[in-house]
Every structure is written in structure tokens, then in C-alpha cells.
Write a structure and sequence with these properties.
Number of helices: 4
Mean pLDDT: 77
Shape: globular
Radius of gyration: 37 Å
Order of helices and strands: HHEEEEHEEEEH
Oligomer: single chain
Structural class: alpha+beta
Strand order of the largest sheet: 1-2-3-4-8-7-6-5
Low-confidence stretches: 1-8, 47-55
């Protein structure tokens, strides 16, 4: 009886030791597996090619070969060579009311219904293209401009605008594209604000006469 009572604890102790050893071996194996898996994932990530995000594309300084700063003579010469504009320039030049801005207006062919080129003393400052909406559509042009120049800087129901330090590009409804030299636009806005302030001063001075 004494022998049997001694053997029972020894057997239980041996079984417990085997269980602990088994658990340690399983834990060690799982640890090795996890470390190997993480290492494999790291190697795969290191081997994967890095895809660079596309660089921002600078807005163009005009449309086609027409560039800001060109003289009206240079623009007329390019119109004569254009596939999209009518070269008949008779009586095409006009002057905006109460302004020194000269406008060269021409009819278009195919994709362009008509175009307007505005000049100040420095040369060409804006290009306005009214497009043929039977051959082009607003969404397709918007999608192309987004793909080429990135997300727009300003969204409006009637106007979508991209800006750079020197250029403003607008897509307007129903289907007009405008290229504007930002310097010229800001100068005109400042002048308009100054004229408005002067008019307000005259108005207040007149009211004070009563």
C-alpha cells in the first residue's frame, strides 16, 4: 500500500511536468512562427516598388501657342495659323468701356465657337474661349482638367477655378474656358476698389452738404 501511495504522486508530478514542457514547446514554436511571418512581411514590403505620387503640373501661361505678354500683332499672326480660330480679323479690335483694355474677338472653327483676347500695356492678359457644346461637354472637360491639374481651388455652381501664383484657369458654364494673368487681374481689382473708395468719399461729402 505504501508503494502504491508513493507512485501515485510521482506519476502525477511526471504528467504535470510533461504538460508544462509541452506548453513551453508550443509557446516557443508559436513565437518562432510569428517572428518568421513578420520578417517575411517586412521583406515583401521592402521589395515592393515605391509608387511616387504624381507631381503637381503648373498651370499653362495661356492656351495652345498663345502666351501672356504677347503683343496683339503676335496673337493675330498665331490666329492666322490656328486650326480652331477664324483668321478674319477685320474690325476685331475693340476697347472695353471706361478702360484701357483692348479686346481682340474672333470666331472659331469646330471646337471653338468664338474667342476673345484681352490686352493691356504689357501685352496679352487673358484668353476667353467659348466652346462648341455640341462637340464638347462640361463634365468631360472638367474630368480632363482634374486629371491634368489636380483638384480645383474653388468650386461654384457656375464656375470652377484652378490657381497658381501667376495664372487663374476657369471653367464656366455653359462651356467657357478662361486663362487669366493673375497679376493683371489683381491690379484691376485693386484699381476698382480704389475707385469705389473714391466714389464713396464723394458721396459722403455730398451728403454732408445737407
Amino acid at each position: 500500500m505504501v508503494g502504491k501511495s508513493i507512485k501515485a504522486p510521482l506519476a502525477a508530478s511526471s504528467a504535470c511536468a510533461r504538460t508544462v514542457a509541452f506548453r513551453l514547446i508550443c509557446g516557443l514554436a508559436w513565437h518562432i512562427f510569428c517572428v518568421g511571418l513578420l520578417a517575411a512581411q517586412q521583406l515583401e514590403n521592402d521589395a515592393a516598388p515605391t509608387i511616387a505620387s504624381p507631381a503637381a503640373v503648373e498651370l499653362p501661361q495661356g492656351f495652345d501657342r498663345f502666351r501672356f505678354g504677347m503683343s496683339s500683332d503676335m496673337v493675330e499672326a498665331l490666329i492666322a495659323e490656328s486650326l480652331y480660330l477664324n483668321a478674319n480679323l477685320e474690325d476685331a479690335i475693340s476697347v472695353l468701356p471706361r478702360s484701357t483694355i483692348r479686346v481682340l474677338s474672333v470666331n472659331g472653327d469646330s471646337y471653338v465657337s468664338n474667342a476673345h483676347f484681352q490686352f493691356d500695356e504689357s501685352g496679352l492678359i487673358s484668353i476667353i474661349l467659348n466652346l462648341n457644346n455640341t462637340l464638347l461637354d462640361h463634365f468631360a472637360l472638367y474630368s480632363y482638367l482634374i486629371a491634368r491639374y489636380g483638384e480645383a481651388d474653388s468650386l461654384h455652381p457656375r464656375r470652377i477655378e484652378w490657381r497658381s501664383p501667376t495664372v487663374i484657369l476657369r471653367l464656366e458654364r455653359p462651356l467657357t474656358v478662361k486663362y487669366v494673368a493673375r497679376r493683371s487681374l489683381e491690379e484691376r481689382q485693386e484699381a476698382a476698389a480704389a475707385n469705389l473708395s473714391e466714389a464713396e468719399r464723394y458721396r459722403e461729402a455730398f451728403i454732408e452738404l445737407f
